Amino acid sequence: MSQKQEELALLPERHPTKDFFIADIFDNLPFKDDMASMEHPMFSLSKNRDLRQLEYVKGDIRITVAPSTYGLPTIFDKDVLLYCGSLLMDQINKGQIPPRTLRISSHDLLVATNRPTNGQGYQLLKKALDRLKGVSIKTNIKTNKREVTQAFGLIESYHIVESNRVKNRMIRLEITLSEWFYQSILGKEVLTINKDYFRLGKALERRLYEIARKHCGRSASWQIHLKGLKEKVGSTSSLVKFRYFIREITRTNYLPDYTIAIDAEDRVTFRNRETGALYVEVEDLPAIRPDTIKRGAQLVAEAGTGWDYEAIREQFTLQVMKGFRPDNIDGAFIGFVRKKVAATP
């Protein structure tokens, strides 16, 4: 399929000309998706109110998702978590420990996730918040090595400040994330996703992209049988209908980063669009503690030899990316900083 056809198949980019602040942040801030919900079906693929209770068991993993009167959260509602998680990861990668409560601009959220910013866009965001807060999840999936045994929502609470001058417009939005989701971010249990994910207009396409990103990842290809894929997707369609949906997606084949194919034996194969294409993941590298990062900055300031701290951090990161794996990453980093600042650049 040509690039022009591919662009037509995706939703339009609703905000091609972002304001300076948003463009500065989100053109350079990778979006992050938590690996637990990429691996297991926790969101409804229906755009209609879904009042089913979902039960998922795979090996030792158990998940129960019970809706509120608003229905199950949809995979499109997940945009809120992707946005919040990405902001938290940006702070973590800068050596900060972010709070569980975020104060954000709802307008920025809508623009960053390619949603409309009209009155309907704000109303849809409100409904998404209600579903994310109202859902009751029980699972034994651990995040950051912690297992939550009680039922929890995906967000604990939210608070909206609305405009008095413009109807159905939010000014500010305060969201407190669930401890379960927050711990997944602190534990860096996330993967970078393509921003064109937000241009996928069908729920199944979004779910397939998540699965491809989680399982194919950096590899050239990954294969799964159609029946196993249906289970992993969380589809309630019959196998015959699910096969039809997959074949339709293979016909257009415009998932970001990956192609998808199905053969006569119902084997579904995901392939990287570019041979050897790699994601550079900070979270794949050995983690340096926030207090170590702060100590490194202090050493640079005290030395006064003219070094830029971020340049030193970048040099050390490049060494780790090339395969340097010390027994004590924190000690190695401080040693690297001390050696650098002992002389002028």
Structural commentary:
A hairpin with a 2-residue loop joins strand 6 and strand 7 (146-147). The model is unreliable at 1-8, 20-25 and 276-280 (pLDDT under 50). Helix 11 runs parallel beside helix 13. The chain has helices at 3-9, 20-26, 35-39, 79-93, 106-112, 119-134, 179-186, 203-215, 226-233, 239-252, 290-303, 309-321, 329-341, and strands spanning 31-34, 54-58, 61-66, 101-104, 136-139, 142-143, 146-147, 155-162, 170-177, 190-193, 221-225, 258-262, 267-272. The longest helix is centred in the middle third of the chain and has 16 residues, at 119-134. It folds into three domains: 10-199, no CATH class; 203-272, Orthogonal Bundle (Arc Repressor Mutant, subunit A), CATH 1.10.10.10; 285-341. The protein is an alpha+beta fold. It is 41% helix and 18% strand. Strands 2-3-5 form a three-stranded antiparallel beta sheet, with no helix packed on it. Strands 4-9-8 form a three-stranded antiparallel beta sheet.
